[in-house]
Design brief:
The chain is of the alpha+beta class. It has 2 helices and 5 strands; from the N terminus they run βββββαα.
Length: about 80
């Protein structure tokens, strides 16, 4: 599970056997969110309120280029 970013205690990662569309998993303690990188659509969440999800979508939007680059680099080599 490559971790590609850490912000405010959140870990942004993907699994080594991921599938399309490109997405990022985010976790902190018991909370979890999965967000598609191209559309910023939240496709899964657990123990997150709307305010927290909005914050995480903003983080993904801000770091979208780096997150997509990390995805492309990792899966190009695997």
């Amino acid at each position: 599970m490559p971790t590609v970013l850490r912000i405010d205690g959140y870990r942004f990662f993907f699994f080594s056997d991921e599938h399309l569309p490109k997405h990022i998993h985010i976790e902190k303690a018991d909370s979890y969110v999965r967000i598609e990188l191209d559309t910023l659509k939240v496709t899964d969440s657990y123990q997150c309120n709307a305010k927290e999800i909005k914050k995480l979508v903003a983080f993904v939007k801000e770091h979208k280029k780096a997150l997509k680059g990390a995805w492309d680099e990792y899966f190009k080599n695997h």
